[in-house]
Amino acid sequence: MRRALLAALAVLLACAASLLVAAPASAHVVPSTVIALDVHESDITASMTLPASDLSIASGIEITDAVDATTAEEIEQYLEEHFAVTSDNAGWTVAVDDVSVADTEQWGTGEFAAVTATATLTPPATADLRAFTLDYDAIIHQVVTADIYVTLHTDWASGELESARDLGTITTDTVSGAVAPLSIDLDDGSLWQGFAGMVGLGISHIAEGTDHQLFLLTLLLPAPLIALRGRWRGVARPRTTIRRILTITLAFTIGHSATLALGTLGLPVPQQAVEALIAVSILVAAAHAIRPLFPGREALVAGLFGLIHGMAFSTTLTALDLNGGQLALSLLGFNIGIELMQLLVVALVLPPLVLLARTRIYTPLRIIAASITALAAVGWLVDRLGVPNAIGEAADALGVIGPALVLALWLAGIVVAVRRLVPRTGRSSARDDPRALAPLVDGTSERESVVRL
Questions:
Q1: What keywords would UniProt list here (predicted)?
Q2: How far is Cα 59 from Cα 140, in angstroms, rounded to an integer?
Q3: How many CB atoms lie within 10 A of CB 276?
Q4: Are residues 134 and 85 in contact, defined by beta-carbon separation less than 8 angstroms?
Q5: Which residues are 90's β-sheet partners?
Q6: What is the rounded distance in angstroms from the CA atom of residue 330 to the CA atom of residue 199?
Q7: Residues 370 and 232: beta-carbon distance below 8 Å
Q8: What does the pLDDT look like over 362-382, one tens digit per residue?
């Protein structure tokens, strides 16, 4: 049994040590104009990225690394003259602002200077917001080889959030030389589609949020254990363990739900400070998993740190720029998605944790897992304070190996379960029986009944 458990532990270590390799370099291609649409209740925001050199050639405007107010106004006016939207034979209002220049990269182009700008497209009161014609010929009317890609970034009503759906390409007709307008039909949206999309966004936010997962899981590591004289020395009954885990999860939910709502409704969120505090929360949870810092008060700590994590969650909704009924449904749906994913994570790790906590292998497994988490937290903290580092980059890869870690836990737990069910042959002793390694201790008498792990 010990060999099998050690093998599972080796899988955990191998997974934790693996890193994402760099993606192969792509062939160099010519920079293109990209127009990404965000569809709101009453207007559409178009985020524009244009190659600065092509824009300068087409417009005659001299563009440098720093755009002053006069140049920005010239660019805004030029883009408005070459950007028109119509629907139901009615013209929309097009207003361009937020012009700036920055180095960017797209699709293997390598870095290039790009002009970014935001166009607000507002239809008349009677016009259809979801079916329109986009007539845009900035740059391409002079640089005929230019490419213009129109994509959908967000459309709450259709449930497409953080999307990258291609809506079409604006090109020059090779025969007539004219730039053909692009017809866009977003189909019908609904409140249900928007709500379902927000539930999915909440699920993906936790699934991809390695730091949020690590905080909760690391705080759950000592949940099956009992503290005495500054050390984890005993194992609680399964019922006590389950109650603790549910209490911790509920407290974390209450904490992050409160600040998620407040942050989305306008509470200022200092993003860098919040991200740094999330790394601190993971470091504290990891230290507690190694040596008890606040035994019996895990739920309180989970709730307090949940307030910090909720602020980070709120930035996702704030970026969508929602209001009214969409905002209310988004808060509910996003929160439901977060809870569903949290419950799934807990359900996946709870059974093997309860089984492994009664074996000798759990102590080194817990300490190694907590130590790796602490190291990742330090890397994240330093990075979020403005100092990029290899440890922080490596920590970002932990989410990729999460499924393999869960699989290793389950394999080890299955070995323990099978070992208990299969009758033993030959001589056996209490030392060899995993049930004797860590007798169950009722949570109501933890201080009186303790066993060394």
A1: Membrane, Signal, Transmembrane, Transmembrane helix
A2: 11
A3: 19
A4: yes
A5: 87
A6: 8
A7: no
A8: 899 899 999 999 999 999 999
Cβ atoms of 184 and 132 within 8 Å: the answer is yes
3-class SS of residue 362: helix
Which helix (H) or strand (E) segment is 207 a member of?
A: helix 191-208
Residue 133 forms beta bridges with which residues?
86, 183
Q: Is there a contact between 184 and 150 (Cβ–Cβ < 8 Å)?
A: yes
Give the C-alpha separation, 390 to 380, whole Å: 10
Backbone angles phi, psi at 35, to 5 degrees: -120, 110
Tokens representing residue 408 in the block: 């290793």
**Helix (H, G, I), strand (E, B), or coil: what is residue 76?**
helix
What pLDDT, in 10s, does the model give residues 54-79? Answer: 999 999 999 988 888 999 999 999 99
Q: How far apart are CA 399 and CA 208, in angstroms?
A: 7
Contact 330, 317 (CB under 8 A): yes
Local structure of residue 423 (DSSP, 8 states)? P
Question: Is residue 256 within a helix (H) or strand (E), and if so which, with residue range?
Answer: helix 238-264
Q: Of 49, 183, 45, which is closest to residue 121 (Cα–Cα)?
A: 45
Three-state DSSP state, 130: coil
Copy the structure tokens of residue 356: 């492994």
What pTM does this model have?
A: 0.78
Say if CB 105 and CB 4 are below 8 A apart: no
pLDDT tens figures, 82-99: 999 999 888 999 999 999
Domain-wise residue ranges, the chain: 2-21+193-445, 33-189
